[in-house]
Amino acid sequence: MPKPTRLLPCLALALLLSVAGCRHTGSTHAADTPANAVSTATTATTKERLVRLTPQQQHDEELKRWNAWPIREGHSPERAWQGVLHLLRTVPRFADITPEIAGPALGMPGQSLPPPLRGYSARIHPDWALGWALDERTSLPMVDVSLGHRPQMGAPYVDPAPVCDGPTDWPALREALEKMGFATWGYMTDLNPYTYNDHYALSIALLPSSELNKLCIRRIRITPMPQQVRP
Q1: b/e per residue, 155-168, with b = 16+ CB within 10 A?
Q2: Helices (DSSP H) in 9-39: which residue ranges?
Q3: pLDDT, position 38
Q4: Exposed, middle or buried: residue 54 (CB in 10 Å: 0-12, 13-18, 19+)?
Q5: Backbone Cα Rg of the chain
Q6: 181 backbone dihedrals φ, ψ, rounded to 5°
Q7: Of the candidate ranges 42-46, 67-71, 79-83, 85-89, the one whose mean pLDDT is the lowest
Q8: pLDDT value for 226
Q9: Quick check: 121 and 32 in contact, CB under 8 A?
């Protein structure tokens, strides 16, 4: 099994503060965001204030928001990974993926993040969060579905066993993707494979579970192939 790498504990707060941060990661459900439906202006103020804090103070602030964030029942990483496969099978163009399509497919609401972000995030376990975001603000748009861990100083490795108990581990995901024509594989690192077919490119982040003795999925990022960015 590949050597464990450090888990970046960013999903919950990064989706709120900046979708780009963890590339370090319909109806409105205000309580599913850590700051309880903060506005864009409030988010900007929060970011400016955090810059003035020491790393320990920033960590304490993030942990305080995490602990105040309610745990939402009924969201499943397994359903999210199966939802990604469903989108890839049934939506032929990236341009056709909308929050109204993505949310139900992934087993989560279609929208709860502050504008201009589109997506959803929720704490699903005392130590883990799950969410997705559709970001069309860049030249190459993306849908990012990912798990994040409770904020930690130094981002040590944490076993993902509590959120990796479904059958869709890395071998099962790869087999399902290859059946859809994702036949060319590359690796940024041993835990960061990428692949593509005629319409989509995928970047995948894995996390080994020593407890379960398997490679778990931490993130799947979907982008259109460059020639398919726009219809």
Answers
A1: eeebebebbbebeb
A2: 11-17
A3: 31
A4: exposed
A5: 17
A6: 100, 5
A7: 42-46
A8: 72
A9: yes
